[in-house]
Amino acid sequence: MNHQQELDAGLKNAESDESREGTMKPILENLLKSNPSAAQSALDAPTDVSLRVPCYCEENVWRLAFRKLYQQQYDTALSNLQFFVVFVSNPKACVPMFHQLASTNRNKPIFWDYHVILVSTGTVRNDGDDTARPSSLVWDMDSHLSCPCPFQEYIDAVFWDYHKWPHEYTPHFRVVDAMSFLRHFSSDRSHMLQSDGTWNATPPPYDCILQQQPPLELSATTANGVNQSSNDGNGGRNTLLQYMTISKEEVTGSTVLSNVEKGGIFCNQNERVAVRVGESATDQSSTCTFGEIYTLPQLRERFQ
Known about the structure:
Blueprint: H1 3-34, H2 36-44, H3 57-72, E1 82-89, E2 95-97, E3 110-112, E4 115-125, E5 132-139, E6 149-150, H4 151-158, E7 172-177, H5 178-184, H6 240-244, H7 248-252, E8 264-267, E9 274-277, E10 292-295, H8 296-303
Antiparallel strand pairs: 1-4, 1-7, 2-3, 4-5, 5-6, 7-10, 8-9
Helix pairs in contact: 1-2, 2-3, 3-5
């Protein structure tokens, strides 16, 4: 690449970044207005880790993602980063994860029905070296590991020796663009209520995160049987179950078997999720609100 090509590429990237920032700002400001309690608490927290409310990982990550994208407008150190919300689960809704704060012994796994982390990816330069190299970090406030933690270190520690686990415990990952998640995640916390009306865990002090407009592709019942037909009572709709549930059909790709010969990423009938069929993970993006399903090897390839 000659000097003029480098200059043109730099200008194109700068224009793209400026366009993205110009789009992000009004969305973030709107989120601050529509969910002032949760969003403001994210900005007021003294540290990232202090956002943690035990047993509400999905809300912790919503607030962390909001905090990071908001900071990104003013902090040049964050300007080249992309953020992704990652739900960890499987069709059994039982995934062993090591080094979790919920365990008194970090070397013994906690079996989560689902867990949520934030992943950032971008490029870094070593001192005295002009060569940029990719770098990915994991933000898991429920882990004994550092927060953030280098991606490879986190995966190796948390899913230690996973290939030797019984098949039904194999982890799968729903990867969602952070901005999309901020706009579409909605939960009234009813999943944390017991039949007698008491809480399984003390709820956060801020108001529920509720979006007034549900995603257009959200149907009353999804392909994996998750019913989303009832409103949350505030004009919005609960989308948490859409994110946290990873069905057998999604994992096997059975909803798109007719397209196997084409390879690539496909959305099922109601566009709930993009399913990766017949190819390794790539940097392709999907317009589906509820992200893409990855195996652990694919996740490594995506964020290595």
